[in-house]
Design goal:
By secondary structure, this protein is of the alpha/beta class. The protein has helices at 12-26, 47-59, 79-88, 125-139, 157-168, 219-226, 230-234, 266-286, and strands at 36-41, 62-64, 93-98, 113-119, 146-150, 172-176, 200-203, 241-243. The structure holds phosphoric acid mono(formamide)ester (CP). Phosphoric acid mono(formamide)ester is lined by residues 45-48, 118, 127, 245-247. Catalyzes the condensation of carbamoyl phosphate and aspartate to form carbamoyl aspartate and inorganic phosphate, the committed step in the de novo pyrimidine nucleotide biosynthesis pathway.
Length: 289
Amino acid sequence: MPNLLSMNNLENDTIMSLLERAGEFQRGERAPIDGTVVNLFFEPSTRTKMSFEMAEHHMGLAVLPFETAFSSILKGETLYDTVKTMEAIGVGAVIIRHEEEAYYQQLEGCNVAIINGGDGSGQHPTQSLLDLMTIYQEFGRIKGVHVTIVGDIAHSRVAKSNAAALKQLGAHVSFICPEEWSGDYESSEHLDDFIETTDVVMMLRVQHERHAVSALFSKENYHEQYGLTVEREKRMKDGAIIMHPAPINRGVEIADCLVECERSRIFKQMANGVFVRMAVLEYALKGRD
Ligand code: CP
């Protein structure tokens, strides 16, 4: 049964096939499958959880409710035993968001499809796919598009998933962040050097819950140095777009008034998320050439 754990091991043909299928769902095609799925979210989520639920609803899948606060996880049950239980009762796929990076390594031996809804600072493959769909729809290609990813690269599963997939598909990727947040990536601290030439400015959320940002920056200071300010947006080239996976710290990584400006594709990304997740659910439940 195919899993979707990371963008690192997904071939270009598989990525493009998922994007194509997502486009078919967007144009109203119905999914010819049935099955039972469970959304296991151990970390907070609005977009990923709700858009999986919407995708499942559109596909007519049976969705078993699961609330961490009312599960035997609270009695110390392991993630492995929780997922094995889903398998035993006949669930076909589980969507998991978990704070532990690569949590899925402990699930080897579970005969149920696993879709990663985000693992700590590791990967967020369905976010990456919806970002790729948005870029592809905008430019008609991924190859050669210049994407500048700005913010907390080291802690961002969105940045890591997108960096792998975009480079593999031939995009030109630049990283802008404070030196402390660059992780393994070669980066610059100067967004101003890139703002006039990039096709996509992809802002990342400052992750207050994963580290003490306030020790490094005030909100105003961060916005001024690394944020998409009104002044910077004016210098973006014709046709360039703004993306952000959300949730957004308005006024920190992006000026409040730019969130819904003409260049912004932030809510388009969220809309695309439903169709991408339909394609991923079909891929996981059925497999697809
Ligand atoms: N983009 C994203 O993963 O949002 P949520 O944390 O709300 O799911």
